[in-house]
Amino acid sequence: MGWAYNLLSYKLSPILFNRIRKTMTSIKYDSFYRYDDLTELLHDFATEYPNLITLESIGKSYQGRDIWVATLTNADTGKADEKPAVWVDGNIHSVEVTASHSCLHFIQTLVNGYENDERITHALNTRAFYICPRINPDGAEAALSDNPKRVRSSMRPYPHDDEPISGLEQDDIDGDGRVLYMRIKDPSGPWKPHPDAPALLVPRAPDDYKGTFYHLYKEGQSFETDNAMLKSGRPKEGLDLNRNFPANFEPEGAQMGAGPAPFSEPETRAVGDFFLTHKNIFIAIAGHTFSGVLLRPGSSVPDEDLPVQDLQAYKAMGKRGQELSGYPAISVYRDFRYHPKEDIRGSFNWVYDHLGIFTWVIEYWAPHRAAGLNVENYSEWFFEHSQDDALKLYEYFEKELPGKGYVDWYEFDHPKLGKVELGGWDIGNTIHNPPFHLLEKELAPFPEWFIYLALISPKLELHKAEIEALGGDSYLLTMIIENAGYLPTCGSPIARDHKITRDIVVEIDLPDGAKLIQGLPWEEKGHLEGRVGMMPSPIFVGTGFDPRDGAVSRIKCQWIVQAAKGTTVTLSAHQERSGRVEASLACE
Ligand SMILES: [Zn+2]
After folding, report:
1. pLDDT digits (tens, 9 = 90+) for 529-572
2. How does DSSP classify residue 565?
3. Quick one: what percent of the chain has pLDDT higher than 70?
């Protein structure tokens, strides 16, 4: 179909062309994509934009579904793996489908913006994007099915595959397509109705002795028939894929859901293999929900333990992300821990800790902020907040999704437990993900941040390439290369120190008959600094205070060759994270 578009774009004005293009592949915002629809949509994008998108499966999930990665770059300006690259993913956690939608929204923005938006066009010409909308297709499919099942991550039974014999197993017991909550009246129950909104359950105060109290469970199946002894069970699918990466990995006993060993699961192994074989990735953005925050490392160390340049880069990136999205940019270690004494082990931050790839985790959607609440500590707030805050959240969703976000309690005759009540939060489109009418607005700010993150990459450029005849058949060849990027050519110094990324390699390619007299055919040249880490104030320029003050980030290479007139010699330089430059010079 490529020729048809070229023909159209040639004949029609850009505005008209866009209008036609908009009627082609476009994503919807009134529901989330089930696996088959997601697969079809990605293939449609790849078919419609063959020059910008290639689609590949990087592995199969536990249940045999393909894990798709779309590579976006302009194929005419060079191969993806010869350009600095950004990884964007979503949905390692099964219910966090907004993150999946954000990837699709980003793909849509890139293809729509190509040749219409200067920065997007430049980014697609000079960088590559690896976009993995759904790392965990099995868990997401279960969450989105007509009989939804919400597990943390994958569908592999873990740590055991016995059927649960005690405890309540989450299930859409009344078959209405929702998994709500189940409440059972009990004088010893820890929950009670809110005084101003009786449907809303709030924690019973320590000194409450009079009133109606409830036990609260997920809507579900029970092997147990005696209400008095009922308890919540842990889902049989107990893995958390975001604890299965190698950095700070801890086994099940210390880190719930970690799996038996790092990369034991097919989904994390596929992602790990991709990072180890795509050495041009310098930054990775992992999509989750919810909280409305941008999270950066350190994940298990304070800021003082990060390389100084990395901290400066993270602060610049975070500032821009916060300006665009309104989400605070915070450190995981300092501001996002479930418990002050525990840090998360075995998470995706592996790519920063081991590979020196800059990492951001986006927790899309902030229901508390949407409801007008001012929350200081996000993870703490969701565990414990005032009755007043609970009421505001409830009232907000009553306004946005009347009767649907929070479902008033109704009687149900449970097959095992007899009369119970079902109701409470329908968390799929309230807490875990935004209601559909707010979805597009929530995702809108992010493509611009992703483009910003792509453009701060290291970037090799050719400053000068020239040839000088020395007399006879001898020639002097000179090449000066530079790092035009903000980040150093290694990305993070962690990558350089861990020997994860190679030095800049400079080469001379001589045809048969030509002879190298001086210089090496192939040489490693170390790394080049970027602009990050330079003295940020002009007051100190020229004082000797900053050792890098006035230093140029360039390398000069020279060769002498003997060659016949008319011979073409090719000089090149490449660095895995910084791209490739090349110059062909003729001996005249
Ligand atoms: Zn998550």
Report:
1. 999 987 767 787 888 777 677 777 899 999 999 999 999 999 99
2. T
3. 95
pTM higher than the cut 0.70? yes
pLDDT-based confidence at residue 6 (cuts at 50, 70, 90): very low
**How many angstroms separate the alpha carbon of residue 545 from the centre of ligand 1?**
44
Residues 255 and 350 in one domain: yes
Structural domain total, the chain? 3
Same domain, yes or no, for 403 and 337?
no
* Pair (63, 108) in one structural domain: yes
> What confidence tens digit (pLDDT) does each residue in 327-365 have?
999 998 887 776 666 778 999 999 999 999 999 999 999
91 C-alpha to center of ligand 1: Å? 7
Could you give the CA distance from residue 88 to residue 223 in angstroms, rounded to a whole number? 42
C-alpha to C-alpha distances, 545 to 14, 181, 312, 403, nearest whole angstrom = 52, 63, 18, 64
Cα 196 to ligand 1 centre (Å): 33
Supply φ then ψ for residue 55, to 5 degrees: -120, 135
* Residues facing residue 561 across a β-bridge: 475, 516
458: its two tokens? 């290291």
Judgement on whether residues 201 and 247 belong to the same structural domain of the protein:
no
Ligand 1 center to 288 CA (angstroms): 4
Based on the fold, state whether residues 350 and 440 are members of the same structural domain: yes
- The pLDDT score that the predictor gives to residue 16 is 53
Spacing, Cα 106 to ligand 1 middle (Å)? 19
- Helix (H), strand (E) at residue 585: strand 579-586
Integer Cα distance of 311 and 322 in angstroms: 16
Task: Give the distance (Å) from ligand 1 centre to CA of residue 386.
Answer: 25
Q: How many whole angstroms from 78 Cα to the centroid of ligand 1?
A: 35
Distance 268 CA to ligand 1 centre (A): 14
- Looking at the structure, do residues 445 and 318 belong to the same domain, yes or no? yes
Ligand 1 geometric centre to CA of 319 (Å): 23
In this structure, the answer to whether residues 13 and 123 fall within a common structural domain is yes
Residue 73 maps to which CATH number? 3.40.630.10
Domain with 391, as residue range(s), is 157-224+234-238+369-429
Q: 398 alpha carbon to ligand 1 midpoint, in Å?
A: 26
The pLDDT, as a whole number, for residue 414 is 95
